[in-house]
Amino acid sequence: MIEIPIMFSLLPRGFCLFLVGSVFFIVLNLLQLERKVALSPELLTKYSDAWWVAPACGFLATVIGLLYPFIDNFLGQTHKHQPDWSSVMRCIAIFVGINHASAKLEFHNNIQLSLTLAAMSIGLWWLFDRSRSGFVLALLIAIVATVMALVLVYSGILSYTEPRLEYMRSCIPSIFFSGGVTMGSIGRQLALSGKEHKD
Questions:
Q1: Contact indicator for 190, 65 with CB cutoff of 8 Å
Q2: How many domains, the chain?
Q3: Scanning 41, 51, 64, 158, which has its CA 20 to 30 A from the CA of 33?
Q4: pLDDT digits (tens, 9 = 90+) for 62-91
């Protein structure tokens, strides 16, 4: 059973992760508009049918950000590659850069795009995580989130400004992978900061 103090310490961390995830979605969606593959700009209005996507991304970010430190504690792992908030900010900057690169870089085919973004995403993991559990979690996040996104698009629940599903299949797994690493990094640092504050 979860102790009351632990439960209350999860609430502010969860709220912070929810806000970060929601804001990330809005910002990264706007970056993708440059390539005309993002969700419609009407998504940002309260009358849009897809108003729920940003809060859903916030919820997923919360789950991911809380799951990483939980798995670390369960496995008894500590990470030397995440010393402070400046490291987390660099991770966020590179994650945004990967997303921006997916919108700006032009390639002859989608395989080159996939391989380039995959290499960048694995590089992000190598720089800021390097744990097996972090890699496996990010990989699972990428697979599950990509499948969910494609199901939502194919079922017509979400619609994109331009039907370029080949492009989506090329870049979205890497974006979700690097997003998992980034939210895990934020979640770990929030957990570490909370622990230091208690001590």
A1: yes
A2: 1
A3: 64
A4: 999 999 999 988 887 766 555 688 999 999
Q: How far is CA 62 from the centre of its chain?
A: 10
Coil, helix or strand at residue 51 = coil
- 182 vs 95: CA distance, rounded Å: 7
**Which residues does residue 39 pair with via DSSP β-bridges, in sequence order?**
160
Residues of the chain predicted below pLDDT 70:
1-8, 32-50, 78-83, 158-168, 194-199
- Domain of 154, in residue numbers: 4-198
3-class state of residue 39 by DSSP: strand
Contacts of 131 (CB under 8 A, 6+ apart): 72, 77, 79
Q: What is the per-residue pLDDT for 185?
A: 92
Cα three-residue angle 57-165-116, rounded to 5 degrees: 80
Write down how long the chain is: 199
Buried b (16+ CB within 10 A) or exposed e, 48-72: eebeebbebbbbbbbbbbbbbbebb
Tracing tokens 């499948």 back to the chain, one arrives at 147
Q: What is the pLDDT of residue 126?
A: 94
Q: What is the pTM of this model?
A: 0.82
Phi, psi dihedrals of residue 18, rounded to the nearest 5°? -60, -45
Give strand pairing partners of 160: 39
E-state strands within the chain: none
